Amino acid sequence: MEWWQTLLVIFAGLSFLLALGMPVAFSFILVNVIGIWLLQGGGNAFNQLALSMYSSVSSFTLAPIPLFVLMGELLWQSRLAFNALDVLDKLLGRISGRLSVLTVCTGTVFSALSGSTMANTAMLGTLLLPEMERRGYARTMSVGPILASGGLAMMIPPSALGVILAALAGLSIGKILIGAVLPALLMALLYFGYIVVRCRLDPSLTPAYEVERVPLREKLLAIAKHLLPLGMIVFLVTGLIVVGVATPTESAALGCLGSVILVAAYGRLTWPVVRDSVSGALKITAMMLAILVGAIGFSQILAFSGASRGLLQYVTGLAMEPIITILLMQLVVLALGSFMEQIAIMLITLPIYIPIVQALGYDPIWFGILLLINLQMALTTPPFGLLLFVIKGVAPPEMTMREIYLSCLPFLACDAVVLFTVLVFPETITWFVGLVFD
Questions:
Q1: Mean model confidence pLDDT for the chain
Q2: Which strand (E) or helix (H) includes residue 94?
Q3: Of 22, 107, 109, 378, which residue is 20 to 30 A from 44 by alpha carbon distance?
Q4: Residue 269 burial by Cβ neighbours in a 10 Å radius (0-12, 13-18, 19+)
Q5: What is the 3-state secondary structure (H, E, C) of the chain?
Q6: Which pLDDT band, with edges at 50, 70 and 90, does 340 fall under?
Q7: Which of 249, 187, 178 is nearest to 376 (CA)?
């Protein structure tokens, strides 16, 4: 059987299982088992597969995943993260599209406290969407900023998906986490600029309302009491990696410890908070690690079958510019993102993409961050972007999916600008990562 036929059979079988509704982890594991049986006849090959699956999740480099998740759960369950919303509300004052800008600022801050895009989006939708609806904000200025800034949690540490991407691709976790900060902040800046400019051109999109003046003393007290302590958590997670004091695993442990101390200092380290935080972290971590178990076997199937080697030789032999190949790879990911979950996309593409990227002579860290931006866009890409349905769940019943689709388009355009910038100017990432780690 030719390599392309083998590749087609593998992906067809996987797509069939996913279409049946089988969980991602079980779909990959079943494909692995059937593939080993057909390609190697089972026997000792099954033992080797089991050992490989075990080693894929017993690595110390994956320790940041449960720690990042637990840290976020503690801050959410204790509701300490919500204090930042009140502080930012007092600091903004009078500005065009005030609540939309507040959404972007809050979403960016919350992304630095929790790596969950779903939790970030649901929280912003629950807290801010009713107020924007009540004040007559246009859907593109209410739903759009929530979807856009909610997805930033995939980019800004603590990003569990960033850790998974680095682990699957065999890349430095620290470089992926830190390298993604720059494009994430650029995205937030573009959201901010788009909202302000658009609202000044068309004030009817965000009707103005009287804002209570807050004394400077009260603002400073709010910052000192609620924002700076959360800023210390962000420093423990990201800052220590930047200054070279801690590894990603150590910074994750310190961030988790700092969250426990902070929650206790505010008097909110109660049994229900601990129970719900640990329970939530266990469920999310178990799901992620189960999917990772299937990843290593899938990579082996592609290698044993010769499919990945054949595809690599085919792509590197094409008479086209390497950058065009990278662009086509990104378009495939964007298309997959409109109907597939992010981890499943990484499991399918990374075993094939990374060898191609290395063969073409590109920096795999740059490509990993490029892929992370693309996956973040896929969260809000119609018709089946995951966050589109999250916001539908917390939106008023009369809001249609068409309105949600249209509201995200301007912000997807902002993401596309960042994606194109990183694609055309790789040095924006390589320079920043080199500045931090060299």
A1: 83
A2: none
A3: 22
A4: middle
A5: CCHHHHHHHHHHHHHHHHHCCCCHHHHHHHHHHHHHHHHHCCCHHHHHHHHHHHHHHCCHHHCHHHHHHHHHHHHHHCCCCCHHHHHHHHHHCCCCCHHHHHHHHHHHHHHCCCCCHHHHHHHHHHHHHHHHHHCCCCHHHHHHHHHHHHHHHHCCCCCHHHHHHHHHHCCCHHHHHHHCHHHHHHHHHHHHHHHHHHHHHCHHHCCCCCCCCCCHHHHHHHHHHHHHHHHHHHHHHHHHHHCCCCCHHHHHHHHHHHHHHHHHHCCCCCHHHHHHHHHHHHHHHHHHHHHHHHHHHHHHHHHHHCHHHHHHHHHHCCCCCHHHHHHHHHHHHHHHHCCCCHHHHHHHHHHHHHHHHHHCCCCHHHHHHHHHHHHHHHCCCCCCCHHHHHHHHHCCCCCCHHHHHHHHHHHHHHHHHHHHHHHHCCHHHHHHHHHHHC
A6: low
A7: 187
Q: Which of 119, 32, 47 has the alpha carbon at shortest distance from 79?
A: 119
Per the CB < 8 A criterion, the answer to whether 200 and 96 are in contact is yes
Cβ atoms within 10 Å of 41's Cβ, excluding its own? 10
Q: How far apart are CA 138 and CA 185, in angstroms?
A: 25
Residues 74/88, Cβ–Cβ less than 8 Å: no
Cα-Cα-Cα-Cα torsion 70, 76, 80, 83, nearest 10 degrees, comes to 140
DSSP class of residue 113 equals T
- What sign has the CA pseudo-torsion 420, 241, 107, 150? positive
Six-digit token string for 102: 């507040």
How many percent of the chain have pLDDT more than 90?
19
Q: Which residue, 432, 410, 391, is CA-closest to 184?
A: 432
- Asked if residues 373 and 183 have their Cβ atoms less than 8 Å apart, the reply is yes
Instruction: State the Cα torsion 138-140-142-144 to the nearest 10°.
Output: 180
pTM of the entire predicted model: 0.80
Mean pLDDT of 69-84: 82
Residue 48's alpha-carbon distances to 10, 61, 120, 299, 420, in angstroms, are 20, 22, 40, 13, 42
Residue type, 148: A
Using N-to-C axis directions, what is the helix angle for 44-57 and 271-305, rounded to 10°? 140
